[in-house]
Amino acid sequence: MGNYIPDTPQEQLEMLKKLGFSSYDDLYAMVPEEAKLKDLKLPEGKSEMEVSQIVSDIAGTNTIYRDIYRGAGAYKHYIPAIVKTVTSNEKFLTAYTPYQAEISQGVLQSIFEYQTQICELTGMEVSNASVYDGAVAAAEAIFMCLERKRNEVLLSADIHPDVRKVIETYCESRSVTVTTLKSNDFRVCENDLKEKLNEGTACVLVQSPNYYGVIEDVEALTAIVHEAGAKMIESVNPISLGLLKTPGEMGVDICVGEGQPLGLPLSFGGPYLGFMSCRKDMMRKLPGRIVGQTTDHDGRRCFVLTLQAREQHIRREKASSNICSNEALCAMTASVYLAAMGPDGIRKAAVASASHAHYLKERLAELGFKACTDQPFFNEFLTESPVDVKKLEKALADKGILMGLIEGDRILWCATECNGKDKIDKLVEAIKEVL
Amino acid sequence: MKLLFEISKTGRKQSLLPELDVKETVFDQKYLRAADPKLPEISEVDLDRHYTELSKQTHGVNDGFYPLGSCTMKYNPRIDEETGSNAGFTQIHPLQPEESVQGCLKVLYDAEKYLCEITGMDGMTFEPAAGAHGEYTGLLLIRRYHQSRNDTERVNIIVPDSAHGTNPASATMAGFKVINVPSNDKGGVDLEELKKVVGKDTAGLMLTNPNTLGLFDPNILEITRIIHEAGGLCYYDGANLNAIMGRVRPGDMGFDCVHLNLHKTFATPHGGGGPGSGPVGCKDFLKQFLPGDTVKEENGVYRFTTAENSMGKVRSFHGNFLVVVKALTYILTLGKEGIIEASGKAVLNANYLMEQLKDLYQVAYDQTCMHEFVLCLDELKKETGVSAMDIAKGSLEYGIHPPTMYFPLIVHEALMLEPTETESKETLDAAAAIFRELYQKAHDDPEYLHNAPHKCPISRPNETEAARNPILKYESD
User: Distance (Å, rounded) from C-alpha B86 to C-alpha A62?
Assistant: First the structure.
């Protein structure tokens, strides 16, 4: 019904006639008759009012939980109102990749600001303009480290399972050997790392806080990795960096992560963004768009897409990556979020997330949810359960609570600044009813 | 204008989070960062104004004609943004129990059903987050297929010389060797050259049809037959699907798998370079290799399943889900008639604009085009010294977003124009008049165009300097 074509059918016919055609079909004379579609089996078009109702009804069959204690790669943080209003601006929303710098300074400057903020947050020297998500960022970081004689990667056992799967898929196609390091009480086993590192190791990838929330001793691991001449990649939760030691401070070569916690809603998994930052000497190996500062012909400061000699539209099969579209609007979202929060706000979010999680762990322990480790953790932790986990999930769901993620017969809990003391106390009461 | 970091003043902040209501967790010093990150400290009002100022320096689809070839810059309907912002989607955790996300699964299920019908495919994944990501995924399907048959000699992917740069780059990433095949004098694939390069080492062909010259290759059935007979598979780059949707399907042209750009053909916004969505569809025999979860329906209940020989995953969770919601909204609105009308008008608009320019500008291949066409400014440059870049920058003076420049690579001084179906006759007439005026200007005052634009927030940037001496973040003094 709607097709967003401005001209009336009569006007369209006049345009066709002006070109010597009598119908739209005439425009497709080059298409072989036998390949033409006779009947497109789609429903008929509908009015905006009908479509609005249909999609709203579909959304209505999803359950929105009031309180969420589930993280595992996607985190419910508070999103300041300004974040959504800025990024809904029609210009930011609809513009294409800023190839034409003269009319794209808004997008270009915002990416330059994003790159600076990511560098500040991670303690690294250079950032790109984003990639698809944290998992692809990890895979792309591994590709940055490959050398002719170094074609193996070592992965920590306790990284996000989706990140592992994406890495394995990417590495298979490039014939890169992926080996998993032993885990010792939910941390990378240093002895195993020393044993497995060899002259063919290109890099080691560690997540900290890891999938189970545990803070790894990245500094010590990095020293071991560098000793063997390999590169260190750390995957981080960006909110944790409001408080925790930065990859830059710990000597890491490439920092990657899932940027969703920086102002992006959960959205059933996307759009999110992968951030990537690295040391300056690896700059030309970064995949994707990078914005740089320069001057225009009148000497004014301005911003452009730069170092394009790495990219597919110039280098084709020799490009550092095939990436073209990235997640620019999500990067802007993260940038507005970080600007609104400021150093004080990001620190507060980190402290509140960690403190709420530690309070939650204590209260759950009182109910018999025994923590699986006593290692230092940020805002996630794994417990055993004194009650059937499925039964508990169902009972809490009925009260509008999404509990931690079920991992076999254990539960991976998460708290952020959104899970305050009152809410946690209510959760505890609700659990007591099930015990 | 100032950067966020230059507006920042120590101690300024916004009141966003409450005071801590539990005991503060204190970490061992060895885990803590030495100092807070030097993020800007800005009041809400100053921050809001900063972005309003940035938005004034950004050209969006509503700022005017946006004929950026190959990018399908059609209007992005408002209703799609509204449905994509529904809390029933945005507040859903990707790892919720299946019974609590039936709506999300229905979105994926319906989108798959409709997009399979439009492409002539049998199954689809929504994991790929953009077109190039989809290309990579499609090539991995081809790789898995040959591996499953122990056909390990098939290492070559054939790509026409007119292809998007992402095609060869994706092929390399997927572990293949790229074989370029030249175009014939009509802009299509040279069949004789194609026959020369196919063989036992052919894994597949990547092709967009219509191609990047905006031309539909009439030999398409012959091309895909040649590849199939050599034992290879055919991959359809869906970047140009807007020309043919509802009229001819990749599946009926002999293609085995395809990626779509929902952010082109299905009207979801580009966001200044993403988020996009690049779902990959395939024929039945390749479904077993699809990545991640696909949705099945039984008695009105939706559930995720994983293909038996799945390649694994190419992105976490389920891809750029909200983009799929927007694209589904668009498909429901257009329906069977609207989809066909959209492609027809896209092709009409391109031909209509081309017709009004071709007495002045040389058209690279003078024949009925599809949704876009390519001008060759070689002659103009020889006559006047004015390049494709100069004309493109000149169009900025008139509020037109420049066409794609210097692409495809096989046309010298190329300008590629794609009007899309959402532009009216008046807009096209006005744009034609402007490009004609620019042609005249090239003869009358070439210097003016060499220095264009004159009325934009900045003049031409020094890109060489940017690359030679990279400044990639703000440094405080």
Answer: 11
CA distance A152 to A71: 30
Number of domains in chain B: 2
* A267 φψ region: left (φ > 0), alpha (ψ -120 to 50), beta (else): left
DSSP classification of residue A132 = S
Residue B204 lies in a domain: yes
Same domain, B330 and B380: no
* Whether B172 and B194 share a structural domain: yes
- d(C-alpha A342, C-alpha A353), whole Å: 16
Say yes or no to pLDDT of A323 above 90: no
The answer to whether the beta carbons of residues B73 and B273 sit under 8 Å apart is no
Burial B432-443 (b: 16+ CB within 10 A, else e): bebbeebbebbe
Instruction: List beta partners, residue A301.
Output: A295
CB–CB of A96 and B100 under 8 A?
no
Q: In a mutagenesis test of the A interface, which of B19, B30, B54, B133 is the best target, namely the one with the most A β-carbons within 10 Å?
A: B54
On whether both B176 and B227 belong to a single domain, the answer is yes
Single out the residue of A109, A400, A405, A145 nearest to residue B95, CA to CA. Answer: A405
Domains and CATH numbers, chain A: 9-60 (no CATH), 67-78+343-434 (3.90.1150.10), 81-336 (3.40.640.10)
Q: Which amino acid is at B274?
A: G
Instruction: Give residue B203's pLDDT.
Output: 98
Is B5 contained in some domain? no
Q: State what percent of residues in chain A have pLDDT above 90.
A: 94
At A1 the pLDDT is 62
For residue B427, count other CB atoms closer than 10 A to its CB.
19
Judgement on whether residues B84 and B147 belong to the same structural domain of the protein: yes
pLDDT (tens digit, 9 = 90+) per residue, B72-123?
Answer: 999 999 999 999 999 999 999 999 999 999 999 999 999 999 999 999 999 9
Residue type at B417? L
State pLDDT tens for residues A3-34.
899 999 999 999 999 999 999 999 999 999 99
Which residue(s) pair with B68 in the sheet? B417
Name the helix (H) or strand (E) containing B157: strand B156-160
**B382 and B406: one domain?**
yes
* Interchain pair A327, B317: CB under 8 A: no
What angle do helix axes A161-173 and A134-145 make, rounded to 10 degrees?
40
Q: What is the rounded average pLDDT of the residues B193-201?
A: 97
- Looking at the fold, whether B384 and B313 belong to one and the same domain comes out as no
Greatest CA separation for chain B: 77
Say whether A125 sits in a helix, a strand or coil: coil
Pair of tokens at residue B240: 């140009």
Domain containing residue B439: 338-463
The pLDDT of residue A313 = 80
CATH of the domain at B397: 3.90.1150.10
Tell me whether residue B386 is in a domain: yes
Centre a 10 Å sphere on the Cβ of residue A430 and count the other Cβ atoms it contains.
Answer: 18
State whether residue B169 sits within 8 Å of chain A by CB: yes
At A319 the pLDDT is 81
Domain termination site, one of B334, B369, B385: B334
- Residue tagged 């992105």 (tokens): B315
With an 8 Å Cβ cutoff, are B48 and A88 in contact?
A: no
Q: Confidence band (pLDDT; 50, 70, 90) for B477? A: low
Flag the least confident range among A219-228, A317-326, B9-18, B189-198. A317-326
- pLDDT, averaged across chain A: 96
Same-domain status, B321 and B441? no
Q: Please, what's the b/e burial string for A93-118 (b: 16 or more CB within 10 A of its CB; e: otherwise)?
A: bbbbbbbbbbbbbbbbbbbbbbbbbb
pLDDT averaged over every residue in chain B: 96
Interchain CB contact of A276 with B (< 8 Å): no
- CB < 8 Å from A in window 210-239 of B: 215-218, 220-221
Domain boundary among B334, B361, B392: B334
Q: Answer yes or no: is B387 within a domain.
A: yes
